[in-house]
């Protein structure tokens, strides 16, 4: 059973359909790429999943159970987290403060003191195999580690499904490699990742499956090991690759 199913999702803005009966399903422990040209509907589908928009019709199921996601809090309650492209961290605070302090108010556990935060963070980072320390100041870390701190923060909020939108766009090659080995660890721990990118090389390296949208329609879901670049490009542009250049 998939951890996430989006079924027959439709959405129109001002009478213009941007998603037309789109299906999307993610398994536990997989990295699933969402692909499609500009305007295909990827961001809109993810905004529906995170409660930014409400679908006109269709269902969202988590572990087979229908859920209502009307805002981001409800997405988080359903173990869905967006890893924002613009990092939401406070650079002058430590990793631990970023992961715990800024949110404890909301959860009404009461504020934890720095020591508690650092202990909890140390345990979390150790579990995740992330090579940073709880008292590292975020602005002194490379941008790749900012992202890992973001991911650790999401996981501390019990996220099981992470949405990553162009996660490597501001990373160097080395930082990308570090992120990918981290993603592989997350996979092995059973987390699911929705990976939005235009970088085919990266998708074939890190993703298990690809779902392709075109003009707001679901086209296909392919297993990366059973498909190739040409086929994927054909699905994205919607015609024979050679014809596209005639
Ligand atoms: P992608 O992320 O695949 O590039 P989007 O989901 O951003 O595609 O956009 C799909 C279509 O929906 C585009 O034609 C876009 O202009 C339109 N769209 C997205 N959000 C809105 C909105 N809030 N109001 C009107 N049109 C929108
Ligand atoms: Mg776009
Ligand atoms: Mg987009």
From TrEMBL:
Q: Where is the ABC transporter domain?
A: 4-240
- Signal peptide region: none
Output the superkingdom of the source species. Answer: Bacteria
- According to its UniProt record, where is this protein located? Cell membrane
**Entry protein name:** Sugar ABC transporter ATP-binding protein
Q: Which organism is it from?
A: Mesobacillus campisalis
Question: In the record, what lineage is assigned to the organism producing the protein?
Answer: Bacteria, Bacillati, Bacillota, Bacilli, Bacillales
- Relative to the complete UniProt sequence, the shown stretch is 6 to 251 of 501
């Amino acid at each position: 059973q998939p951890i996430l199913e989006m079924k027959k999702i439709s959405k129109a803005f001002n009478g213009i359909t941007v998603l037309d009966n789109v299906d999307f399903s993610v398994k536990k422990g997989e990295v699933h790429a969402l692909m499609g040209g500009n305007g295909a509907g990827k961001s809109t589908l993810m905004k529906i999943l995170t409660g930014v928009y409400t679908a006109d019709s269709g269902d969202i199921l988590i572990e087979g159970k229908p859920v209502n996601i009307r805002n981001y809090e409800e997405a988080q309650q359903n173990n869905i987290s967006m890893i924002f492209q613009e990092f939401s961290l406070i650079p002058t605070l430590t990793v631990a403060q970023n992961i715990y302090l800024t949110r404890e108010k909301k959860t009404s556990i009461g504020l934890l003191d720095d020591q508690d935060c650092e202990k909890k963070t140390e345990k979390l980072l150790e579990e995740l195999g992330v090579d940073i320390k709880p008292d590292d100041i975020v602005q002194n870390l490379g941008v790749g580690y900012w992202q890992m701190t973001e991911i650790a923060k999401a996981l501390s909020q019990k996220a099981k499904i992470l949405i990553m939108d162009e996660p490597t766009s501001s990373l160097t090659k080395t930082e990308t490699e570090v992120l990918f080995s981290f993603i592989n660890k997350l996979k092995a721990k059973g987390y699911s990742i929705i990976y939005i990118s235009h970088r085919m090389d990266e998708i074939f390296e890190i993703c298990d499956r690809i779902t392709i949208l075109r003009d707001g329609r679901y086209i296909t879901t392919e297993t990366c090991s059973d498909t190739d670049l040409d086929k994927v490009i054909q699905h994205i542009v919607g015609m024979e690759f050679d014809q596209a250049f005639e």
